[in-house]
Amino acid sequence: MKLIKITSIALLAGFMIADTGCVRKLGEFGDTNLNPGIVAEPITAALFTNVLSATGGEIWSVTGGLYAQHYSETQYTEASRYARQQLDFSGYYSGVLFDCQNIINFNTANPEKAAAYGSNANQIATARILKAWWYLRVVDAWGNVPYSQALKYEGVIPYDDQQAIYTDLLKELKEAVAQFDGGPAFQGDILLGGDVTKWKKFANSLRVIMGLRIAKADATKGKAEVLDALANPAGVLTSYTEDVKLAYPGGSFLNPFYNYYNITQRRDFALSATLTEFMNPVTPVWAPNGNNDKRVFAYGSASSAGTYVKGFPYGLTRTDAVNWSNANVDWARVISNSLRTATMPMPLLTASQVWLARAQAAQMGWTAENATTAYANGIEQGWRQWGVYNAVDLAAYMLDPDIALAGGNQMAKIFRQRWIAAYPDGQEAWDIWREANGNGNNYLVLTPAPGAGLAIPRRFGISQTQFDLNPNTQAVAAAYTVSGEADSQYARIWWDKQ
Amino acid sequence: MRKFASLFVMAILCSMLVFAQNRNVSGTVTDANGKAIPFASVTIKGTKNGVTADADGRFTIKGVASGTVLVITSVGFDDREITVGTSDNVSISLTPTAGSNLTEVVVTSAFGIKKSQRTTPYSSQVLKSDQLNIIPQTNVVEALAGKIAGVQVRSQSNAKLNSSDFLRIRGGLSLGDLGPIFVVDGTVINSFDINPDDVEDVTVLKGANATALFGEAATGGAIVITTKKRAPKSGIGVELTQSIMADKVYILPEYQNLYAGGASSDLIQYNYQPGQPAEWQALDGKFFHDYTDDASWGPRMSGQEYIPWYAWFPGTQYSFKGAPLVAQPDNNRDFWNTGVTTTTNAAFSKSGPGSNIRISYTNQNIQGIIPNSNSIRHTLFMTGSVDLNSHFTAGVNSTYSTQRIRGEFEDGYANNSAGSFTQWFHRDLDMGIMKELRNLTSPYGAYASWNLYTNPDGAAGYEDIIGNYWYNHYTYFQNQDNLQSRDRFFGDFYVQYKMNNHFNVKATVRKNQLTTFYENKTTSALEKSAGQSGYLASYRTGESYYREYNYEALATYSNTFFGNKLAISVTGGANVRDIEQKSVDMSTVNGLNIPDYYAINNSVAQPNIANGRSNSKVNSLFGSGDIEWNKFASVTFAVRNDWYSANPTDGKNVDLLSPSVGASFIFSEFTKSSLPWLTFGKLFGSWGRKPRPLNTYQNNFGYSTGQFLWNGNFLMGTPNTAVDPDLIGSTVTTYEAGIDLRFLKGRLGVNILYYNEDNDGEPLNIPVSGVSGFTSIAKNSVHVKREGIEVQINASPVKGKNFSWDVTKTFGYLIKNPVISISGVASGRQLLAGGAFGTRFARAFQEVGKDWGQLIGGGIKRNTEGLMVLNATTGQYVRDLDKHWGSVIPKTTGGLINTFTYKDFVMSFSLDYQIGGKFFSLSEMWGNFSGLLDETAATNDKGKNVRDAVADGGGVHVVGVSSVDEKTPIDRYIEAQDYFHQFYFNQVAEPFIHDLTFVKVREASLGYRIPVKKIGGISKYVNGATFSVIARNPWIIHRESKNFDPSEISGVQGEDGQLPGVRSFGASLKLSF
Residue A403 — left, alpha, or beta (φ > 0 → left; ψ -120 to 50 → alpha)? Predict the structure, then answer.
């Protein structure tokens, strides 16, 4: 008996001590730790679609649109009264920018696998253009941002000088246009349907816009880029039929304006009176300075009278805004009721914008083009883009002294039209306002929100998160000091020269 | 693994061949009430042969013949001798030593291993059923509050029927908050599904030294619960308990009652416009206050006539009539229902030689204080064991609980009850009328609301006076139907083979399964009835399934040597854990096609559909043991090795070892003569390590596809968490030392303990700047320490025949809880908890070099002399961007349980307190912004209301220095709205930061033991009856924050719109037959 007892204890002791073979087995779990909900490698076409799906929402860039006075806030008015905005740019990097980079990385590391979704060259070229477009949104809002070391898994990296970023973005766009090959188009292209020529035109047009943007800071470079882009055989956008627009399918993916007003039923934002005062028909008391720009009926919902669009006065205090809103329930929602549908396309870049930029380049003497013709084309393409074209009305509009270039103040008129044509891309309009003012000129005047000492911000403050996670943020914040306040929203970024 | 299993089976089979040759006598040692006395010594008189009974009082002694005398001794009881007769079974009942308060306390650890507290070298406070259940609490965490040293309970409002309180042991130990595990009879489950009625006792184990045997699950500590097992006496026991409690809201913010709703401080005259509804003509020329703004910056209320919101809608007695404009001071309080909680428990038990069974059924029914909220829970608990022969015992513990909870319990910013009343509301609203008109609809078909989309003077008709941001609150809760259903099964089945008194083996299978189902419906009428509320008609449903199996084998050997001088007990075992989770979730998108048809396929846009799956396994080997010498010195050790499926499979870091060792020295054995007043004195110390493995799939990097197709194209995003290729598991280390003293036969006991814990390199997702392309990286990063003192005092100041007073006092002090490092986070700062509008105000962070959970945010800037800096132009505060207020964890926590017994009366109450710790109140911020709280209509030092114009002597008085030079004094008045709006606009959180300090009576009970024996007739059937008057949260004695109950703060950083605290009174009757 004793023997059995000892044996069983020994067996249990053996069980505790366990030979190495068993120990190894204890650590074997087969496929248990493979997450069944994921796949190991990306589908580049799906990354591409994902990045494109976000572009439309980016166009409704609220804060820039408030600063440019395209939009007004109707009830909580702090942003339009310039309460300090500390916005985070890191979402661009971890979201769309890294997806663009991932397309490039996967095509480089696994060219055979990636080629299932289009030729490697076409995929990389497209991703470079798209990446440049997104970077431009970031760099124009914040100024110096991480660039050369970004998207490489490392979060503590230097900020790059904005000028260097511009130089590289322009180079990327130029090289991308040259990189496309005759191979299969990139699948998943919900923006331009895999049309390589359209991508080239988009890239060239973007270079024209960028060339003008740096006119105050580096006119030589700007001029060279504009000339080079215009000379590219693929050309630029010239007709509204070529506009780069993201068309929404409806259903699960709704136009953001439609989603905002028609689905969520909020009403925080209105079309700004600054825009409607300039564009409305001449007659109503609402718009004594109106120039009868028919686009106004597309830009916003009509007043109850139907004959004009009642823009919301810009930058009121909360109490004033609520009171005004109560007295004017028919204030203009962004985009007319008939255009604002679930499937309404969002324009990323239009022929109208490009023509007007060319008019400016010609007016500045950068190109040999006829400024007046380009200006007229720009306005006409804009009217056509918004479906309000009518030869008689347009002719009358073009003769209006506030519009006709012949009457002088050409630069101011061109900037004014560029500001209108940017709509509804609020950030682009804010960029244009900053381009227009400086170097001794004041081509586009926007009156700041009412109140002592209020001034329109010239950049976004950097979010606290970046101060926390990337110590290099401190130096950039110090470089953007105004009146003793670091990371000031009133600091001027590189191309926004005084 | 299979090899081990077969070895194990062999061991059992071999052992079965063993039969006793000597005559064995088995027995049970109990007290007069039939309760087991654990670990009693049983010796044969005149010999050194003896055994120690187990934790259940059971023993088997061999070499016994008829006429042998057994001596039974146990601390706190008189020694007893019995003479063995012919029976092989003896029942021994011991009498407590007069005036003594010493008894063996049984500590329960992992796998149900029980040991005596005398040899326990770590913190192991044990709470008995009567201390836990002073009153019937709906959840076990609330019942623990203030009763365990070093434990902070963050209670939640009792209005939330779907949530359990959060329990934090000893401060923070990781980047996030880690709660303890709850272990019921060895099975790990969620605290929410534990029925306090079935709990016999609770052992709280804290550090790695105490919980090493639990493995990684117990990083936050372990609350080890033993259920009631047997009848109070041999034979049959029947107990019935019925309680009922009424719940009323308790602490509410302090409001102003002078000014009505709206943005305009003047009443607006209504002028009827042609084209408007003809019936509105009756109101022509009367006045109304602005209905569109949901703040209370409206006109002063003096009983003047105005048009209330409901007067605009036809069909009621109030239609198209004015009413006097008066304050409704109690409109918040009036909203809430009186809740009713009834609990019925019936327990049946039977114990006999070699078997016992207990069946308990509990029905808990709660009518919540939020309209249309209720919960019904049925719990069926069964436990039983049967001795098949003198060697084999089979047993089962099983709990099945099914619960249905209805109601909407949202307690964040702008929720539809407390979130409105304290953040956006009108002080003139009459809740009685609100309730009366909850079904009122306008001719347009929308429910009438107090907050109109358009003021009627500018409205074309009823379609323009739908709700703006808010509904009638009763209407909302009537049109939002949320149902949750939980079905929990947990329990175990075991077979134990007891070879002899020294050696036994046990095999256990445990299962824990939770199946939940939920569906939320939002009516189409709600969508139609408000403009900017964002509510769309919707239907959401889903199910989740969680299943955990544990297969456990345990072998225990215990014996004494050298004439009982050396006692050895060792346990070895193995465990296999297998967890599987599945879930499905579906919801409609953008509304319902057919109104009020609640089906996923009725979605306007393609519905959201998601599913989740995960599976993980852990294999473990472990061993533990106690070696005790001559009852004064003991060494305890435990070692466990775990192999995790989630850890890297490269071979070098699959497994983690968690050892622990400790020693106790009972020095009072040597001081009996020199210090006779010292009944018991123990010094103890221990060290241990426990594992932190990777989370399931934490080292998997891969892509998933978006659910929706864009014109046939699917979408895929790169995940935002990168994985450090060197990611490995880690361990947490604890040191502890303490002293346990008992005086005067145990009438006074003091236990003081120091702990020091260190968590270094835990695998966590650490945020990185998104410029990397990722927002976080999974890596071994954080290093956190904590160090503190815990004290427990037990005293019986009075112990007489008729009157006795027992008190237990616990106290915990967190000396320090620093975050030593967070590698990979350059700023050394990591967000812990934000809340709504997080970046604007105060948030909780982990900051290197500082104590865990720093509350940081926008403060008021001070100059070098500490004077507030004011904007020279506006007089408003200048923001201090990065103000530190200190940790969110109270340094000091404690509590007191008092029990007074006078004849047949028993009065008990538990009191608990905490000192220190900070929170931010978002509700106060908005309550000031919206002109709701009392400060916004205070009287200033000129005797004028702050809302009066500064020019008229009103305004808020501010004193400070100018922002220009931070020297020039500023002493001025600023307009009330400018003052109270500045905190939001300038992102200043400071006035709304408060201490968590409070002292409250959490539970009180006065019971009367009805002397059934004296009542003729009944005594035949009824053994005992106790009637009690009970109260929950009867009295908050002290609090630093006036508007909220600091013991029930809903978030780690503070509150966002939390539901009010509840005070309850009731009665319970307990009958035993």
Answer: alpha
The residue in chain B having the minimum alpha-carbon distance to the alpha carbon of residue A263 is B590
In a domain, A25, yes or no: no
Residue A355 inside a domain? The answer is no
Residue B733's DSSP bridge partners are: B689, B758
Give SS3 for A473: helix
- Which of B10, B557, B713 has its CB closest to that of A49? B713
Q: What whole-number distance in Å separates Cα of residue A268 and Cα of residue A75? A: 6
> B617–A251: do the CB atoms touch at under 8 Å?
no
Q: Is residue A300 part of a domain?
A: yes
User: What are the structure tokens assigned to B187, written together?
Assistant: 């099975």
Spatial CB neighbours of B122, under 8 Å, sequence gap ≥ 6:
B205, B206, B207, B209, B210, B662, B684, B686, B688, B736
**pLDDT, tens digit, 9 for 90 and up, residues B317-333:** 999 999 999 999 999 99
Strand ranges of the sheet holding B829-833, from the earlier edge strand across to the other edge = B829-833, B843-847, B854-860, B879-887
Q: pLDDT class for A286, splitting at 50, 70, 90?
A: low
Residue A24 lies in a domain: no
Residues with Cβ within 8 Å of residue A356, at least 6 apart in sequence? A374, A375, A378, A379, A414, A417, A418, A421
- Looking at A9-18, A199-208, A474-483, B840-849, which range is the least confident one? A9-18
What's A132's DSSP letter?
A: H
Those residues of chain B that have pLDDT short of 70 are 1-22, 99-101, 231-234, 650-654, 1016
Nearest CB to A466: which of B704, B769, B984? B769
Residue B16 is predicted with a pLDDT of 41
Q: Rounded mean pLDDT of A70-91?
A: 91
Calpha distance B1073→B1024 (Å, rounded):
7
Degrees, nearest 5: CA angle B802-B806-B812: 175
Provide Rg for chain A, Cα atoms. Answer: 27
Answer yes or no: are the C-beta atoms of A350 and A425 closer than 8 Å.
no
Q: What H or E segment, with its residue span, contains residue B716?
A: strand B713-716
Instruction: Give the structural domain span for A287.
Output: 268-327
The complex scores an ipTM of 0.91
B662 and B649 Cβ atoms separated by less than 8 Å: no
Number of domains in chain A: 1
Question: Do the chains contact at B873 and A453, CB–CB below 8 Å?
Answer: yes
The pLDDT of residue A24: 64
Residue whose entry in the numeric block shows the structure tokens 């009424």? B246
| B612 in reach of chain A (CB within 8 A) | yes
